[in-house]
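Hi R.,

Here's the chain you asked about this morning:
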Amino acid sequence: MNINFLEGKWRLVNLPFPAFQQWTLHEGGELEGVGFQTEPTGDTTTFEWFKIYREGGELFFYSKVQGADFLVENTMMATEITGKSVTFVADSVDFPSEIVYNVSSDRELVMSMSGVMEGKEQVFEFQMIKE
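And here is the predicted structure, written out as C-alpha cells:
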C-alpha cells in the first residue's frame, strides 16, 4: 500500500493556464499536498489542500478546494492500490466521485477525476510532469 510516487512537485501540462500539485511525505507515511491554478497575470484562481492518510486500516484522500466564489471539501476512500496507481471513491458527493492517480513513468502520471456534474457524467484527465 505504498503511494509515495506522488511525492514531489507536479505540473499539469494539458491546461491553458499554469497549475501545480506539490506533495510532501511526512513521517508515518501521510502525504500532504497543495495545488493551485493561476491566471496569466499570476493571480491565483483556485487553491487546493490535500491529505492522504490512514485510519482504521483504510487509506483516505481529503481535499479542500477554494476558488473565488466556492469552497468544496471532500473525503474519499481508496478502493484500489497498485504499485503504479491509486483510486479514491466518494459516495457522498456527485463530483468528483472518483479520483485516480496513475503513474506512466518516474516523471509522468495521469490524474483523472470523474462524477456527475450538471446532470451528466463527466471525466477529466490531467497529464502531470514531475519537476
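One quick note: Residues 23 and 33 are 4 Å apart (CA to CA).

Cheers,
M.
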